[in-house]
Amino acid sequence: AVDPHAVPVLDDLVLAAALCNDASLVPPSRPDAAWDVSGDTTEGALLAFAWRAGLDRAAATLRHPRIAELAFDSSLKRMITVHDAPDGRPLVAAKGALEAILPIVTQIADRDGVRPITASDLDLVRAAAEADSAAGYRVLAIAGGRLAPPKGDPLTLLSTVERDLVLHGLVALADPP
Prior knowledge:
With 177 residues, the chain is of the alpha+beta class. It has five helices and nine strands. It has helices at 9-19, 41-52, 57-63, 98-101, 119-134, and strands at residues 24-26, 36-38, 66-73, 78-83, 91-96, 105-110, 113-116, 137-146, 165-174. The strands form two sheets. A seven-stranded mixed β-sheet has the order 3-4-5-8-9-6-7. The chain has a two-stranded antiparallel sheet with strand order 1-2. α1 packs antiparallel against α2 (41-52). The longest helix is centred in the last third of the chain and has 16 residues, at 119-134.
């Protein structure tokens, strides 16, 4: 299990993975049965990851209700959601293929916090994604950010969400044939 509090920047990765998600985990109907996924299995795996990391998704979605989204698009290879936040600055959560997320990030999160992303960072991230892919994993990039308080219709936020995000990290998922 991942302890998101051992490395504080993982909190943002786990939260974004759970919020930018349309699946749900369905409890077993019998004690000896497995949990099931309602929706996309990749998104279900991200929810299982968030749950194992200690995130209470119900509480997270109550605290950060979705106010807008750019649904997954197979040509863009990413999904972006926008969520209300108690401080009035909407929270952006994004997930997708690394090549689809990198063009919209300008910063990276690491153990020391958030900082501008460098060419060296990009090389390391790409190498990690390639290594995980070569090992048979499906790799998703998770990013996020905060927006200025909205003025007017929340849907106008969508014109500002595809830039200046923070790369929170990569998630490698077992993707059996």
